[in-house]
Protein: Vacuolar ATP synthase subunit S1
Organism: Culex pipiens pipiens
Amino acid sequence: MTRSVLLVAMLALGSAAAHYGGPFLLWGPDELKDVDVSALEGLDDKFLRDLYSNSAAVVIFLRNGTAKLTDDNFPSFRRIIEKHEYVYSPQQGLNSNPLDYNVNAEIINLVGSPTQQDVELSALYRDSSANYGERKVLGILANRWDEYHHELHKREARADDSSTSTTPAGPTDEPEIDDAIYSVPGKALIYISSAPVLNINGTSDDEYVLDKHTVATYDAREKESKLIVTFKVDDTAKLTLKFRFEMSSGYWTMPKVDVFLLDTKNKDAGKSVDAVLEIESGTVPYAPIGFSYSCSKQLVFRNGSIVLTLENIQVQPAMDGSSKFGSAWDCIGFTTAPIWSGIFVTSIMAIMLAIAICAILDIKPPNRFESRTGKQLSFTVQE
């Protein structure tokens, strides 16, 4: 009874502000599988209207934009996402209101600490799934409209300041994403278990942990493509990584990464970088076109003192419309050192066994034997 009253109160709060800001994360129904999201226009409005209507229920969660959407803050929500189809859209608004297309649509304002929001979001979505059916409830995670509107005013003010100022422009004002998943839906996808680390001069003072990035873009060419990701490292620096993919004979490779660092405050301090890093050691990441490359080992790209470190990576370019990784080619492979050791020892034992069997088969016992009543046998031995 208490939960029902709470839901009604939340719904009333949400209805008062029917608008909400992006970016948006949608999950739940199987219709979200292999959905192509335009980086400029976002999700197709007709597709959204059909999705609202065909879902048994729609639950819109409005979160506090200051709560970072990380595994540490939202572990329960992460487990829900992993079990369902989901789509991320960077668009800043929805043209169609879900409340107009589904009678079971509701808006829930998430309040409190990130941990409290995670528990509330996960519990309410599981309750809706239990009531309406698994994979029949559309979940939408968005930002509150007032915070989104406030952010727009901040961006407009920055634009006005930049138009009248002669100082260099600062880092990108695009939405920041706190993860190590760089995706251009249907084009290219990179997943890294932890944030990339860029070290410029071999000291801890010049080390950047790239844990905040903007929307990635993909430059597709016939023989070479690039996945371009921009990171915000501090208030005065903008860093861009360009992952290069070369296409040849039905295979793709990732031999190089371009690094461009612009520090508008420390231009003369040796911190502005424009370099091409090459794989330091080991095999260059590669796979047939249509397959992904996976490596649990550390990949290091280097150019002199500039080092980029990637941990536990899975990558695939030229995805041809798919939003998920293809079958993976692992950098370790099947024949590892322990497997080779086992094959070597087994081969030696098999050879020794074969020699022993041959020796036993070569033994020739006599074909006549002495008896008590018979004549004594004699053998002639020639020297």
In short: Helices lie at 2-16, 45-54, 75-82, 114-132, 145-164, 337-361. The CA atoms of residues 128 and 137 lie 7 Å apart. The radius of gyration is 32 Å. The longest strand covers residues 237-248.
